[in-house]
Amino acid sequence: MFRRIFPFALFVGVAALAAGPAPGQDKKALAAELKRLDGTWEVLGAVRDGESVPKEKRDAMRLVVKAGAYEQRVDGKAVEKGKVRFVGVEQKVLFVEFTPADGPNKGKALTGLLEWLDPDGARVTVPLKAGGGRPLRPGSEPGSGMALMIYKRAQE
Asked: Alpha-carbon distance 36 to 150, whole Å?
């Protein structure tokens, strides 16, 4: 009997994680976290599908967030714009959604994880493609289809 129930219980648990946090998350707390994200962010570290992004590329990258909108910039030019929101939190890990307004992922949410490292630092893990599913833990291993970014608030 255990052999029949355990796979089903495991499936239900994984499905619950993939579906996101329980309804009734504190919207005020999530809004406060989103406000905390406002600003310009430099990329201190980046790994895509297990491969480190070279420093010269990272140095050219910025993420600008204001009032639920984001803009990714490379060499000062916008390469992607869209909406960002937090949809839940569990054990100090925020569930974040980036929804591009243009490009190949237009209108498709990239669901990820955000952890505050300190007041001016954050670690973000997102799938490289929309529909890749929310990561279950921070990081980017080879073949994972995930990107890991370490951000520091830029001095403006």
From this structure: 16
